[in-house]
Structure formats: structure tokens, C-alpha cells
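Typical record was shown:
=====
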Amino acid sequence: MTKKLRGYLITGLVVWLPIFVTVMVIRSIIELLDNLVVLLPKAYMPDTAIPGLGVIIVFAVFLVTGLLVTNFVGQRLVEWGEALLHKIPLVRVIYHTTKQIIQALLQPHGQSFRQVVMIEYPRKEVWTMAFVTGRINHADKELLTVYVPTTPNPTSGFFLMLPETDVVLLDISVENALKVILSLGAMRQPLFK
């Protein structure tokens, strides 16, 4: 009887915990964006808090920025702003690196994080999944650059450069690979495409 009750409890936890975590993360993001309303001029601030207003404002800012930057004048303004940022030593490094990472991840036809591979890491006969981020030439050799995410937090990880012969290409989507990593390898749906 106790075993059955424990099984029911664990099943209930498995159902509710992901829902709870998802709601909490979305709620935190919305609250963070809603707090951006304080940046509005006082004349435009609402008298009462309007849930979701920050999300709408951020969406509108991104949309207007995208519209402005896609024309000639907007592109010139961005180039001028970037030239200004490149003159500030520490800011230059942070801005340039962040911009490259975001462009690599968001470019629809880019090759970063589009291919999942297996590599022997951290030692021989121990395999881990990695994402191909690019290719470089070094000493007349072409090397693959890969990102090895850590589990269960894939935003931290390791950057490695290795010969293509040391890489095993996997027929798995990036989304499924991330599910495997986040689930600590316990994903129960078909792994490969």
C-alpha cells in the first residue's frame, strides 16, 4: 500500500513540477519586463500597474528598432553607435562578443548550433554530446569548433577545437539533444529523428 501511495505521489510530482517551474519562469520574465515601465517618462506612466504592459512595451521597442535598422538611415545610426562603443576598451570586448553570440544563435541560415555531434570528452571512451559552432584553420588543418554544454544548465559549458575525424555526427535535432541534456539523459521519447 505504501509503495502505491509513493508511486502516486511521484507521478503527481512529475506532472505538476514542470508546470510549476514553467509558470514561475514565465511569471519572473513578465515581472522583470513589467518593471521596465519605470523607464517611461512620468507623463506616460499608468496610474495603476497593468500586468503585461512591460512585455508589450519591450515587444514594441524591438519591433520599431527592427523597422528602423533595416533602412539606410537606421543602419548608419547603428554603425555610428557601434563605432562609438568600439572606442571604449572594456565595453568594446563585451559588446562585440555578445553581438557575435546572439547573431550566431539567431541567424536563420547560420550553421552555429545546427549540428549535434558526439565527441570523446573529457577522456577516451567517454562520450558526450556537443554542438558544432563553426570551423577554423590552424596549422594547415581544418578544425571544428564545438560547444559542450553542462548538465542540467546548458548555458555553461566548454569550447573545444578538434579535428573533424574525432567527431561523430548524430542524426538528432538540436531540440532533442537539449532535451537529453536537460533531462540528464532520462528523456523517454525517441532520441533520433
In short: Residues 116-182 form one domain.
